[in-house]
Amino acid sequence: MSLGDRAYPLITRRAALLGIAAGSAMLSLPQSARAEDEWGKLVDAAKKEGHVVLYSAFVGLAAHQQLKKDFEANYGITVDILEARASEVRERIRIEQAAGRFVADVSENGRTTTTLQIAQDHVFDPYGSLPSLGHLKPEFKNDEIRLPVFAIIYGILVNTRLVKADDEPKSWLDLADPRWKGKILSDDFRALGGGGVLFYVLHEHFGREFLEKLAKQDIKFSREIPANERRIARGELPIYVPDSLTSMPELKGLPVKLLAPKEGMPYIGYDLALLRNAPHPNAARLLMEYYLGQKMQQGFANLGLLPVTTDTLSDVNPAMTELEKSKLLGTTDATKMDKMLALAREIFP
């Protein structure tokens, strides 16, 4: 062994890797501490703002009322929420931003509308880093503008007195069975909403040929969703598509059942986005982080909405949990939606 060898003893690969890991851990500690310090400063600034305004396209979402109570109790920050249809929320934001009247801080809307706002309206700012971003499920992708917070999942609603267990549609393809001709009620495939989502996803998976078979089924379109569900419960028709899991609490005790076809359930995600020149930017970011917290995600699950985080949720209705575990079939692409709606109008004139 040479003098050089004795002066610099051999370092094994394992020791080297352990040394690198230890060094990385030491480096990460200050970074983690800095991140916590920065977030603490944001929380303090949000409390000083004391107010945040949310424009939501989910009308009647029960979680909103609990959110207002809890957020104020936890942070002393009041939450004002305006609810309206997706198109109305988008137009209000566009007009206010164009006029330089910056009222809202956060938008809550479906991914299709939010994506169109990004491309056409330019009304959002990046929301920056949030502590819980790493908890998002792989299928729910965030970017610098769109923060996924929950999803609506769709299945097939049947009247259990008119549709026996052995006859239940097990697949979306079963809707083309001649036995259901003239017996299917549906949200309108030709318009934005659940019907448009279903048409898009069925086309993606089964193609035009299947949809043309459905067109021969004499499907009855109606956009009155709560009334449609009640019509099925009364036995006017045996099947309604697509219905969301969120309807189940309201229909409890009635002779209806939501089915999850074997291929999976179509869904539409909802995003939060930070408005450009938001008057309460720190409170807005704190609100966005709060949406990813366990309490909000658990509240969504109990309402029949699909949580977007990997966190374990307790005290969730078992019936909801089972359907929420169903395979996801797919969702829409905002850039193709106009083309799909035009195709729906062609196939279902």
Question: What's the architecture of the largest domain, going by CATH?
Answer: 3-Layer(aba) Sandwich
> And the CATH topology of the largest domain?
D-Maltodextrin-Binding Protein, domain 2
CATH class of the largest domain: Alpha Beta
Using DSSP, what is the number of strands? 12
Radius of gyration over C-alpha positions, nearest whole angstrom: 25 Å
The largest β sheet comes out as:
12 strands, mixed
Taken as a percent bin, the fraction of beta residues is: 15-25%
How many discrete structural domains?
2
**Structural classification:** alpha/beta
Low-confidence stretches: 1-22
Helix content: 40-55%
Work out the helix count.
11
Give the oligomeric state of the chains in this entry, treating copies of one chain as homo and distinct chains as hetero.
single chain
Distance between the termini: 89 Å
Mean pLDDT over all positions: 90
CATH superfamily of the largest domain: Periplasmic binding protein-like II
User: How do the SSEs run, as a string of H and E?
Assistant: HHEHEHEHEEEHEHEEEHHEHEH
Shape field: globular
